[in-house]
Design brief:
The protein is α+β, with helices and mostly antiparallel strands. The protein has one domain. It is built from 4 helices and 12 strands. Strand 8 and strand 9 form a beta hairpin. The protein is globular, with a radius of gyration of 24 Å. The two termini are about 40 Å apart.
């Protein structure tokens, strides 16, 4: 192998690695600040696959996003875990019992189609009241991605200016990543040659 061909092969392999999506660890905490992330159609709970319009009031307009590889993931309440910032959120400062615990995950790679809506509580007077509810503490659900995707995380509300608190989720992969075979550059050349030979053989048979 010449120095030039080796250099080209290394460059091609590096391009494949750099193009690969960011993979979350086996367990990662996502903090959803209720002041910054909601969705416009929050009057209703979207069905899986329904498109929603995220509302982002975060500084810089950055979405609360996580990139995951294909696979099955479990979502649980991360309250009390290291790195978790929130127990519940308040959606209206003018009412007494306005603390709740819910969230929405959408697939930003597919136009923000709903992936999972989670709700674990009724209304509470304080964050502690909501966090103490068993449905919040024991919340658990799963979702499956058939291909790599960027996911957006938000709470159920469209007007975020009078919110406080948020929701913290633990995302864990529980199913295998769908394997994708990536041929080496030399393999791609061989595949191309094989296809040409097959096509040439077919032409000869037809003309015979």
């Amino acid at each position: 192998m010449t120095l030039r061909s080796r250099s080209l092969r290394i460059t091609a392999l590096l391009a494949i690695v750099l193009a690969a999506p960011v993979v979350a660890p086996a367990g990662v905490i996502v903090n959803i600040d209720a002041r910054y992330y909601g969705y416009a159609e929050s009057a209703t709970i979207p069905a899986v696959g329904e498109v929603v319009t995220p509302v982002v009031d975060a500084p810089g307009g950055l979405a609360n996003q996580l990139i995951l590889t294909a696979g099955t993931y479990k979502v649980t309440n991360a309250s009390g875990e290291f790195g978790a910032l929130f127990d519940a959120f308040r959606f209206n400062v003018s009412t007494g019992e306005s603390w709740v615990w819910n969230f929405l995950i959408t697939n930003a790679s597919e136009g923000n189609k709903a992936v999972l809506f989670g709700e674990g509580s009724g209304l509470g007077a304080t964050a502690e009241d909501v966090a103490a509810q068993s449905a919040v503490q024991d919340y658990s659900a799963t979702f499956t991605l058939t291909k790599n995707a960027a996911l957006n995380f938000m709470i159920r509300d469209y007007y975020l200016g009078d919110n406080a608190g948020g929701v913290s989720l633990l995302i864990q992969q529980v199913g295998p990543i769908i394997p994708v075979a990536v041929p080496e550059p030399t393999g791609l050349v061989l595949l191309g040659v094989g296809s040409l030979l097959a096509a040439a053989t077919l032409v000869r048979r037809r003309s015979a």
